[in-house]
């Protein structure tokens, strides 16, 4: 009986599946063309020091302007690029674009602002990755440019041994690693010891309700304390309100990022703002 049901199920869902598969195939083909046709762009979102409001780092975030579909979210096309292996070529394009932008930015801002780049697990566990990064990539950046690779927590769980090898081989004075979207990926906390990671980026789902949800506050507090006791710094992403900013500052979070400070913008816009990004005047948290 179970078998029969299974068969009915698959029949019932077949048209939808092929539709989804067709869409996926199309996107994959168009993704291949997108780089050549100049449809990809990088935007940068400021990450600021929670205590001073100083611009510490810029996270590079890719954008795809599809000629017919308009803006396609990276949450939609990065998984397709990962499954098809296109992420390796796309990843190189991202690295090279960020390196070029970095030189541009220095002409106006000078040194001192870190660059954060999202790296997919497919890239991280690719057998050529450490070689590519150390031999080709780092030399494209200014010598004293500090870089952070952001790897999602879920990426570290799959293939965790290879991921750890790759991270531990690459991390250096110039290159640090951050765990992105921390707290939703169900990694065992003890596994954090295996990775030479210097920053925990707490997932924005913990931030959105933290000012009126006591258990989110408790979790935030625990994550920040745990990171600190392991010698890591913390970043809160998705800060949208002054109340959230003040709370995270009070909890001792080191770095903050979110629409309150700035949406992701072009490198030209960042350069035009100067060294001190016009963050809201920070009140010292009272409690
Ligand atoms: P992520 O690395 O966790 O990036 C944070 C996402 O949150 C970004 O979405 C950013 O625009 C958004 N965000 C920033 N501040 C706020 C806020 O205050 N409120 C809300 N609601 N959202 C905020 P985006 O740019 O759509 O990127 C989505 C995801 O796609 C990224 O998550 C990352 O996993 C992936 N991605 C983006 N660019 C790249 C890339 O160059 N390479 C790779 N491998 N993945 C990328
Ligand atoms: Mg990120
Ligand atoms: Mg994130
Ligand atoms: Mg994310």
UniProtKB/TrEMBL annotation:
Q: Which GO terms describe its molecular function?
A: catalytic activity
According to the entry, every stretch annotated as the EAL domain falls at: 24-278
Q: Tell me where on the tree of life, at the top rank, the source sits.
A: Bacteria
This protein's name: EAL domain-containing protein
Species in which this protein is naturally found = Shewanella cyperi
- Which residues of the full-length protein are shown here? 569 to 855 of 855
